[in-house]
Amino acid sequence: MKANRMEAFSDGVLAIIITIMVLEFRVPEDHDWHALIGLGPKIVSYIFSFVYIGIYWNNHHHLLHMVRTMNGRLMWLNLLLLFWLSLVPFTTAWMGESHFAATPTALYGIILLLASLSYWLLQGAIMNQHSGDSSFVVAMGRDWKGKLSPFLYLIAALTAYVSPWISGFFFLLVAVIWFVPDKRIEHVLRGR
What we know:
It contains nine helices and no strands. The chain is mainly alpha-helical and 192 residues long.
């Protein structure tokens, strides 16, 4: 199997994840703007999750361009990442329904933490395909975003029991850090 097949499969799964999240919305019974106020927590949790899935899609797309040889290890690590991301709609819905109660918010942070660790494992497996002096390995070695994100997700999960606002700040911080796509892989591809 070529990497583009795995990328196409992943794109399909991520598209389904986004679709499932939006299907969680129910049409309000009232027909004025005030009817949307009750949906506020659901809308906020959806926006967070949509941005996160978009960030993963963007970076995953770039990362798979660096695959030299497709193998079972890469396929399983990719499935591990997709597994954790497939739980995002559940935690998004629970967090929104509960108005950001502590446990659903903490679980949301844990799922994002596990997704980030899975992405890190996938990235490491792809880096192992390149020699130690490769420009790709050098560029990826400066991965301050990837090293900081799991730590911030852990803080977000733990602080959910203190305040959902604090957790939300850390979720927002990670999204802001990653919102600008990672240019390291693009620089390596341009240098070839």
